[in-house]
Design a protein that fits this description.
The protein is an alpha+beta fold. The chain has 2 helices and 6 strands; from the N terminus they run αβαβββββ. It has one domain. The strands form 2 sheets. A 4-stranded antiparallel beta sheet has the order 3-4-5-6, with no helix packed on it. A two-stranded parallel ribbon has the order 1-2. Strand 1, helix 2 and strand 2 form a beta-alpha-beta unit. The longest helix has 10 residues.
Length: 103
């Protein structure tokens, strides 16, 4: 726990420091450089994408029928000016009320 004076984003390093764990972030934490660092350090993380996130698909996976997953892809995230160097996995699914969710 930290005082409210510290920015949430400035605390990412303090929050994610152990391999073998999966860290879950709100989309407000989108930080491509930090996520690249996590990939290189072998840290796993999950976050929702923002509506304006630029996605460039690399590979799509075939899904079983009625899997509850709409798409499952390996992707590059970001624009040419500001993007991640590592490939991520992007999964589109729906929540319990049928609303689309991308993580």
């Amino acid at each position: 726990m930290t005082p409210a004076k510290k920015s949430d984003r400035s605390q990412l390093d303090a929050l994610a420091d152990e391999t073998g764990c999966t860290y879950v972030y709100d989309r407000g934490y989108m930080d491509y450089a930090k996520f690249d660092d996590y990939c290189e350090r072998g840290l796993y993380f999950v976050t929702r994408t923002k509506k304006n996130t630029v996605i460039r698909p690399v590979e799509s996976f075939k899904l079983p029928i009625n899997a509850g997953v709409l798409t499952d892809e390996r992707v590059y995230v970001g624009t040419a000016q500001k993007r991640m160097e590592n490939i991520l996995r992007l999964i589109h699914t729906v929540d319990s009320e049928g609303n689309p969710v991308a993580s």
